[in-house]
Design a protein that fits this description.
The complex is a heterodimer of chains A (163) and B (290). Chain A is an alpha+beta fold and 163 residues long. Chain A is elongated. The model of chain A has no long low-confidence stretch (mean pLDDT 97). In chain B, 34% of the residues lie in helices and 26% in strands. In chain B, β8 and β9 form a beta hairpin. The longest helix of chain B has 19 residues. In chain B, 53% of the residues are buried. The chains are: A alpha+beta (163), B alpha+beta (290). The structure holds flavin-adenine dinucleotide (FAD) and FE2/S2 (inorganic) cluster (2 copies). The site of one FE2/S2 (inorganic) cluster has 12 residues of chain A, from loops.
Chain lengths: 163, 290
């Protein structure tokens, strides 16, 4: 059991690097990433779980960064859009987003990319309807989604060698 | 917005969790997946003194087959329950309902037990545990373990039989027996949003005749509602126009939907009738999502 208190020391890896900080319990993961680590790729739209702009990976799975406390990430591995950009894991998807005009203001894009990456990593064919269902937790106020679905569909098909 | 200040403790075992809950009672909130609690904190709708993080109690995770029931640990993530081969084989109703619960990222974190503990009236899992006649297991330092039937558990809007010092440990859900069939239907504005109307039903079908039906309506009133009159109207009948007519009358007796800005009572009742007709038709054809 940790001590019952307001400030906690946490150690976690962020994009592969180990960091140790003391955080207030009430600070959520995206404020921690943005304010403590200057990783501003994770965005805050609604801060109550609806928009998906805050999507990050926690121990390999996408989660809402605004609904996860930084203190809960103690001992965990966090990956952000900066990290997956650097490793090149989704370089093809990012390229296709540009080609297809799948972003305008770009506010939703980091969350969209990480959410799409989970679908791509499943390595299975996905219909447009399935892609839309998988993206249902991510709002985009600019593109109307069509181009985003195009980009994900194209990338998935390319990776599977079906087109 | 940002959450108010609170004290945080991450417990490593069930015993520790029950200790903290015994000490702080209604000043403490259990933090499971946080997918409902965190929004209320960020919007400052609640301000507990203490948050008890139960996420690392491994004993509360896992899905297992135990004789003629499935045990679902409270801390099992939505995503894990949804894809569990045990659930897919033995609890088809839950497998049918899960794609309607929130979105991928929320399901990775949110828990089965959190959903049942919270008892949101528009939520799918409370309706499913009621339709399947599940038993919910609660534990506390003062009172020890006790079993509560799902039919006694849901008391009102976010109100349940659980006391503040109790933790929900697991759900014990009877497996589908031979001849039993499930159907599930939900209407919402956007996939993954909370239901405007929904039904989860389970019963026995033989030669196109339905018996022992348990139709549960959610997104209707302040808690999931078992359609007792509806079940009586269906008993021993097939999915015919005559049955549907009787069901339409019965549903008017079973349900008294709440009106809000999402939909008014008359709309919700009409949607429940439409869903029930679809679900009954599906039941006699093997069941499924309608
Ligand atoms: C955008 C969005 C859409 C959603 N859509 C849906 C939907 O369509 N359908 C749906 O059902 N849900 C939906 N949810 C809610 C989601 O399913 C939550 O995961 C669930 O309601 C609560 O589970 P949790 O583990 O996240 O619990 P938490 O948020 O951690 O806790 C919820 C409440 O239950 C208590 N609690 C949790 N676990 C226990 C326990 N073991 N014992 C005692 N008390 C406990 C907590 O103290 C708290 O009061 C949505 C959430 C979001 C953010
Ligand atoms: S900021 Fe987290 S979901 Fe909107
Ligand atoms: S590109 Fe502007 S919100 Fe999606």
């Amino acid at each position: 059991m940790t001590e019952l208190k307001e400030r906690h020391e946490i150690t976690l890896t962020v994009n592969g690097e180990t960091v140790t900080r003391t955080v207030e319990a009430r600070q959520h993961l995206v404020d921690f990433l943005r304010n403590e680590l200057q990783l501003t790729g994770s965005h805050l739209g609604c801060e109550h779980g609806v928009c998906g702009a805050c999507t990050v990976r926690l121990d390999g799975e996408i989660v809402r960064g605004c609904l996860t406390l930084a203190v809960q990430a103690d001992g965990a591995a966090v990956e952000t859009i900066e990290g997956v950009t650097e490793t090149g894991e989704i370089a093809d998807l990012q390229e296709t987003f540009v080609e297809r005009n799948a972003l305008q203001c770009g506010f939703c894009t980091p969350g969209m990319l990480l959410t799409a990456a989970e679908l791509l990593n499943a390595g299975k064919p996905a219909t447009r309807a399935e892609i839309r269902t998988h993206l249902s937790g991510n709002y985009c106020r600019c593109t109307g989604y069509h181009a985003i679905v195009d980009a994900i569909e194209t990338t998935n098909n390319k990776r599977l060698g079906t087109k | 917005m940002k959450a108010p200040r609170f004290l945080y403790v991450r417990v490593a075992s069930l015993v520790e969790a029950l200790e903290v809950l015994a000490e702080y009672g209604d000043e403490a909130s259990v933090l499971a997946g946080g997918q409902s609690l965190m929004p209320t904190l960020n919007m400052r709708l609640s301000s507990p003194k203490v948050l008890v993080d139960i996420n690392r109690i491994d004993d509360l995770k896992g899905i297992s087959l135990d004789g003629n029931m499935v045990r679902v640990g409270a801390l099992s993530r939505h995503a894990d329950v949804m894809t569990s081969p045990i659930v897919v084989e033995h609890l088809p109703l839950i497998a049918q309902a899960y794609p309607f619960v929130a979105h991928a990222a929320v399901r990775n974190r949110g828990t089965f037990g959190g959903s049942v503990a919270l008892a949101d009236p528009a939520s799918e899992m409370p309706a499913c545990v009621l339709a399947l006649n599940a038993t919910l297991v609660l534990d506390s330092k003062a009172g020890g373990r006790r079993n509560v039937a799902a039919s006694d558990y849901f008391k009102g809007l976010y109100e349940t039989e659980r006391r503040d010092d109790e933790l929900l440990i697991e759900a014990r859900i009877p497996i589908k027996a031979a001849g039993e069939v499930s159907a599930f239907g939900e209407l919402s504005r956007r996939h993954g949003d909370f239901a405007l109307a929904g039904v989860a039903m389970h019963g026995t079908v033989a030669n196109g005749v339905i018996t022992g039906l348990r139709p549960v309506y959610f997104g209707s009133e302040d808690r999931p509602v078992l359609g007792v009159a509806t079940a009586a109207a269906v008993e021993g009948k097939g999915a015919t126009e005559e049955t549907f007519a009787a069901v339409n009358v019965a549903l008017g007796n079973d349900l008294d939907p709440l009106s809000n800005f999402h939909a008014d009572a008359a709309t919700r009742l009409q949607l429940a009738r439409v869903l029930t007709k679809r679900a009954l038709t599906s039941m006699v054809n093997g069941g499924g999502v309608v």
